């Protein structure tokens, strides 16, 4: 029990001027900051600040599989562990992983698997550890985006990057990139991810209500948003090599 | 990219040992020097206090959360503070998934004892109504990168997170606790500044703040938590043994080093003024 009760959900999620509570237009993203190579011990790592979300991801692999019976003789395996810190949410989260964390780990893993060449690494595992240290809506999208960056940072062969973002509906209006409050008080939420090598959707969940036309429109909206985020991912990776080059020349 | 294994190559081991004999460290430090501390506080919006501390390559994020609950029957007017540490498998190939292992429990307990026995937290200020209602503070430390000496990094991290904390102030009303609209801040609850000071031992040579390669070579370490004038906890771990004179010498060194560190880090600058 805490003393404060989380503010009652606001009745209105759109202001009179049509903007959202945080001042964004309907298709605006929250500010996003990405960085790679942030955890020295890892084979690859990345960090993302997406609005108030703060997430670390690190990649280890290819390495030996523990426990051994999970190893596959003809291919490598990918395992994703999405976790939230106890202090990342309003009410302290219990330290042990819950059902939600396990489900999100699974959908992220399934969405990243198609871009890897697992068949080239029989008997090994790739492990991605994701730690959400501060959460404010859309952590699974931010986690997927940052995990793809960490894989690329590890130099693991990939068919392409993966990018993720959500669309949803508040007060009957479609919006991109839901914040925590919009996610909880809004009418629907649809996280998506795209693998760029085949231009196909590799993560898709939805809850809420919408009609056929809205589905078409939201898919277009989310694709536009993901294109913007993809550019940021590429820039972040390039930036790392530019820095290395500058260091060597300097 | 650094390749860390449980074992360290003989050649690196000898290199570290031979350098130490000449009173030199592989990273260029003197025997009694810390690596650089870097502290950021209130980085986590969802927490009631937080810090992000790096010590060389070691990085720990600590967050404070609170709950309201009943006090222990034998301490009816005192709040409760629990310290937890998680060695995230993200931070090092040496860490495994699963429930807390010995190493993370030791980290949490050593930091906890250092803080608890120093009367660092004034637990009676965390009481809303005697025998009925007190605060339970959770200080949760997450190791993001393991570069050696997690205990000292954790102790600075826990302390700076506590100092940066801002907990809604409760008042006992007829049917339970209610928020007064004010906050209890770190300044109100923290009295002393206990610091954990850790020494490594390799071949009878003692040195401050072992880095990860040094930790892998060393036979053991000893941690002393000190306030301005008292030792509040000691933890010897590993197979190394110490002469009485060595322990006395380390005791004295701890005070000296802690005083310097307290000045350098200037902890009170991290207190918040949220009212």
Tally of extended strands of chain B?
A: 12
How many domain regions of chain A?
A: 1
Give the low-pLDDT segments of chain B: none
| Portion in beta strands of chain A | 25-35%
Largest interface: A-B, 37 and 42 residues
Order of helices and strands of chain B: HEEEEHEEHEEHEEHEEH
Overall pLDDT level of chain B: 91
Quick one: CATH superfamily of chain A?
GHMP Kinase, N-terminal domain
**Pattern of helices and strands of chain A:** EEEEHEHEEHEEH
- Residue fraction in strands of chain B: 25-35%
Given this structure, which CATH class of chain B is correct?
Alpha Beta
Q: How is the main sheet of chain B built?
A: 6 strands, mixed
The N- to C-terminal Cα distance of chain B equals: 46 Å
Tell me what the structure shows.
The complex is a heterodimer of chains A (250) and B (275). Chain A has a single domain (32-249), classed as 2-Layer Sandwich (Ribosomal Protein S5, domain 2), CATH 3.30.230. In chain A, 29% of the residues lie in helices and 28% in strands. Chain A contains 4 helices and 9 strands. In chain A, a hairpin with a 2-residue loop joins strand 2 and strand 3 (53-64). The longest helix of chain A is centred in the C-terminal third of the chain and has 38 residues, at 212-249. Chain A is globular, with a radius of gyration of 19 Å. Chain B has one domain (10-270): GHMP Kinase, N-terminal domain (Ribosomal Protein S5, domain 2, 2-Layer Sandwich). Chain B is 27% helix and 33% strand. Chain B has helices at residues 10-21, 102-116, 150-163, 186-189, 212-217, 244-265, and strands at 37-41, 50-55, 58-69, 80-87, 127-129, 133-145, 166-173, 176-185, 195-202, 205-208, 220-226, 231-238. The N and C termini of chain B lie far apart (46 Å). The interface between A and B is large, with 37 and 42 residues.
